[in-house]
Amino acid sequence: MEKQNYDIIATDNGSSIKMWTQGVPVEEAAKQQLANTARMPFIYKHIAVMPDVHLGKGSTIGSVIPTLGAIIPAAVGVDIGCGMMAAKTTLSASDLPDNLGPLRSAIERAIPHGMTPKTRGYRGRDEGSWNTPPAPVDAAWAQLKDEFDVICQKTPKLSKTNNYRHLGTLGGGNHFIEVCLDETGAVWFMLHSGSRGVGNAIGSHFIELAKKDMRTHFINLPDDDLAYLEEGTSHYQDYVEAVGWAQRFARSNREVMMHNLIAAVRTIITKPFETHVEAVNCHHNYVQRERHFGKDVLITRKGAVSARPGELGIIPGSMGAKSFIVRGKGNEESFNSCSHGAGRTMSRNEAKRRFNADDQALATAGVECRKDASVVDEIPMAYKDIDAVMHAQRDLVEVVHTLKQVVCVKG
């Protein structure tokens, strides 16, 4: 009999937690958060935990939450549809310029990134949005606008969000754009972003509605952020419509960025090249209806990627670490899922306390990227060992390509 590569934790309500975390650290606070979620009465079968698991808001990042008849908006989160896109090109390492600085600068000019710090009291245009959106943004927005107008009729305040001008922009935090080389020396373009300001507004709005519903019906929860929307209610249906739209916005956001990334690279590398030789565009913060163990259920992946049989996905490391293009093995016990990255071992504030800009420069040697103090929270040492994370999920995915970044743009 094949050895079981996950651990099982039983809960007091009959459900369980299955953890693909052998050989990687899991903080006690994350285990408690998982136990709180598993106690919810609508959990189906068990919660599947990926090796990049760590403490999150409401529900644990790196978890797959199957539910019947209810959705937990905070489990989906506020970066709805956040995910990855990667495209292999016909370029090779020898086609890249010796000085990668101009390439990085061209990408930074082509794609708005970062955000205006709240501490500056800035009231003008968000620095991470477009001033005048280019044609690809207009074309993508035309496919999203009509449905968004319907959503805004139900929730008017969403119309005041930065939606159209955020389409095709990166954002901040752990979002990034990279130029990578695979094991053969082929050049890949890879990026990480989600639904930006409008997704945040949608998520925040429905999280508060769910909490209000809990108070109205005197429902006590182990954590307020486990507030849920019950199927059949108006709030539930409105959320399903809004979250579905936000996930489409996020996918389109990555496609527009990839279009502009390719155009930016062509201004520096004049040799003709093709892209999308192999391409992947996958969410890792989302909810959708799937069939598992003979039943139609809602699957919320909070920091997890779909890994159905033969399905391609992306598992990034961190700045200075390897990333992987993977193929799903279709492990039903994990609800056909895998990790969405390496996973943090410490908070952003803790990383800034422990490390400085010199540490960041050393950890990202050989990568053309920012090395200043403001990105120290993304230092590779703040993340789990990506090799250990990959080994822990060897029965969930197989590695197709191993990527190493040479250029990294952060917000």
From TrEMBL:
* Enzyme type, top EC level: ligase
According to UniProt, the reaction catalysed is: a 3'-end 3'-phospho-ribonucleotide-RNA + a 5'-end dephospho-ribonucleoside-RNA + GTP = a ribonucleotidyl-ribonucleotide-RNA + GMP + diphosphate; a 3'-end 2',3'-cyclophospho-ribonucleotide-RNA + a 5'-end dephospho-ribonucleoside-RNA + GTP + H2O = a ribonucleotidyl-ribonucleotide-RNA + GMP + diphosphate + H(+)
Residues reported to bind GMP: 174-178, 284-285, 316-319, 323, 340-343, 410
According to the UniProt entry, the coiled-coil residues are none
Residue positions annotated to bind Mn(2+) 2 are 192, 284
**Cofactor binding, per record:** Binds 2 manganese ions per subunit.
Q: Where does Mn(2+) 1 bind?
A: 79, 175
Q: Which cofactor does it need?
A: Mn(2+)
Q: What keywords are assigned to this protein?
A: GTP-binding, Ligase, Manganese, Metal-binding, Nucleotide-binding, RNA repair
Which GO molecular function entries does the Swiss-Prot or TrEMBL record give?
DNA ligase activity; GTP binding; manganese ion binding; RNA ligase (GTP) activity
Entry annotated with the keyword Nucleotide-binding: yes
User: Which positions are catalytic residues?
Assistant: 340 (gmp-histidine intermediate)
EC number in record: 6.5.1.8
Q: Which Pfam family, an example, fits this chain?
A: RtcB
Any single GO BP term:
DNA repair
Q: Which InterPro entries match?
A: RtcB, RtcB-like, RtcB-like_sf
Q: PROSITE patterns recorded for this chain?
A: UPF0027
Oligomeric state and partners? Monomer.
Family in the record: Belongs to the RtcB family.
Q: What is this protein called?
A: 3'-phosphate/5'-hydroxy nucleic acid ligase
Q: What gene is this protein a product of?
A: rtcB_1
